[in-house]
Amino acid sequence: MVDIKYKYNKGENFMNCDLAKENLQKFNLIYEEYKNQDLTESDTRSKIIDYMLINILGWNEADICREEFVRSGYFDYKLSIAGFNVVVEAKKSLCELILPKQKRQKFRLKTIYNDNKDVINQIRRYLVEVGCDLGIITNGKQFIVAKFINNNGKPWLDNTCIVYNGIEDINENFVDFWNNLSKIGIINNGGIQPLNINEIEFTKTILSTISEKDNEITRNDIASKIAPIISKVFGEIYNNDDDNDDIQFIKECFVENKEVIKNKAELNGLFRDNAPLLSEVIKAKNHESIVQQINEEIKIAPPLSKNQITPKPVIIIGSKGAGKTTFLKFLFKQRLPEDTISNYPYIYINLMKYYSGSDEIDFEKISKDALEQFNDLYSFFEINTLRVLKRIYIKEINEKDKGVWKHLKENNPEKYEDKLSVFLEEKIGKQQAHLEALNLYLTREIHKRIILVFDNADQLDDKIQEKIFLFACSLNVRAKFGVFISLREGYYYKWRNQPPFNAFESNVYHIAAPDYGIVLQKRIDYAIKYLHDNNIGGVRGYTSAGFDLQIGEDKITEFFAGIRSSLFGVINSPILEFIRHTTFPNIREGLRLFKVFLTSGYTDVEEYILRVIHNKDSHQITIPIHEFAKTIGLENKLYYNHSTSNIKNLFYPSPNNFDYFTKIWILKRLEEQLQFEGNINKFLDYNKFVDEFCEYGYRKDILNQEIEELLQNSFIEADKVISDIKWNELPREFSITITAKGLYYIQNIINKFYYIELVLQDTPIFNSEKFEEIRSIFPLCDNRGKRDMSERIKVVEAFINYLFEKEQMQQPIVLKKKYGNIINNILANGLKTDIQRIKLKMNI
User: What is the pTM of this model?
Assistant: First the structure.
């Protein structure tokens, strides 16, 4: 008897089609003995089906759930990977399935149902309770594979099933069997290929039918004239080119954050003997205290110290856009005292300059540029003179003078100098080694220490970041450099206890984002000061009516003053609230949105400036929230596109999902957790959360996709900070909670007319008649983006009615009982009032 050994791997089962075929041939040798035995259902599973799943179809033990209890009994297997679940019902080996004896392998379920009614009904009960639609019925030799549950209103008996009618059939059609049911085949095909039939026969968006969908609005001439000023004021404080930073801009606009950062221990000294573990994050009350700590700690152990203590690497962490680069440049350019900088000359290295698109980074090039930058900034060290080069390599030169060069030095000085020159040229040619030798010379003889600032590592791939971290730490250990490395906090928390990062003792500072209100106030104040100090002299342009208009510097200044007073007034506080909730802590993104608003063709800058010129309404500038939202949602496009817009469409389903409300239900469940449990217990275990929604009839693969999209768009966040980093796949264990952005959307934005009017343009409609009805009343834009208001209201009402019908037909009763009807809530919480207000104002 052939001994069949199962490969129960805890890790990956690297099965391929060739090996699977070999294992099937081994199985064939003993099948004759098995088929004459009356194996129990348990024996069939352990001796036949387990082997089929693991050694032939390549499933891992980690992918297989066995004999899990549901209310209707115990199902035998559930195979699960990301985006795919299937229930397997095992029968006794002698329990024959009644199947057509034909060569073809696809039939309608209704063809085989009456002869296999009991087992089909049984697996359907399991599938309903598990929240899955795919099932496999097998006795180890025969297979029925089908989608036994429908959610599209069509009779499930009309579905196609795949049939393998015995071991001989599997042998004859092995490649087909492998492609359809193996783990690799399902991953590659996105499911069981012959059953991947779109449930929805019709799907179309309004946007897809508009030929001018990519056209942009005609820009206002006057607005374009002041756009350069706006771009400067609301752009990055620091330039990519380190030499061209506007020092005055930095001084005026940098915001020192006052938010308290709670950490495990306060730093006792950057150069203390017992440095903190990497898991320790510096406790700093504000930017001022961080600057003071760093300055004092750097000076605790100067380079001339006899014990030659080398400062531990400093890691600057913060979320995307929180201001890590700004802080680093502000620290070294503005806040560290001159005596500190003179003893610790720094070199700023923007790592984005060295990214080539691969997993490699040229450290020789980085070292070469660092040497050139040092020579340019600190030329008084004369590092390229023969005198200094000889001092850098004095130890090696002395050794050679006593050895191989001794005769030349004493008898042929000219040839000796040639040898020395060749030696030094070779040393200089090895850029990284020369950079290290330079710093060792400075600390040894000049009592100075170079600080290398590695910025933007967090913008690069994981593998590159790891190499950069090791490179920086090696320079710190081998050559006594002080090193600063900026990382995104998500990566830091992911890596901190893993090698190689836990091998180095580092001091970690957290940079938190400042308040948006202060940031915007400083930027607008700077714009006014910039106009006054630089004698801009005004601008000249044409109004929308075609009139030539000269706008003086004083009027532009008044325009910015009006923006400031209105932005921070009661009337326009919703705009600041919108920015705070939808972009915090990404200050860079918040500034970008405000810049988009001021420079977009939709913003009526002409009207605002003319109001100032003609002293209209006491220069008061009122910016309605719907205008602001429309502007940042469209930027300069005529129509809304969900994939590129700054305003995200919560009604847009993930691929293979046809439910408009999945994202909203997820957010409402997380909102409930926050409201009832508070901040302390706001996180929900991801797997338990998904299991809960599967009980409502949702598929796990769909939930995975929807949650990934919510994470990517910052509607939810995880305890592992996975929304701040890139993952090839979600980790196995983590917890999720709703963000301020997610709350703001479901409590505020989703209830507004401006939001529904935008997203309906690019939401798929799954009913041809409804689509034609909505599309027929959708008003097109003119070249200024204007559309008929009465038609806009009609199309919003038609779209909401369509969503209401879909919600009544498809949504789980238990969710509607817990959280109410979504569309009714939207109408009651703002949309109905918005429509009534617009109709009254427009006399519609």
Answer: 0.60
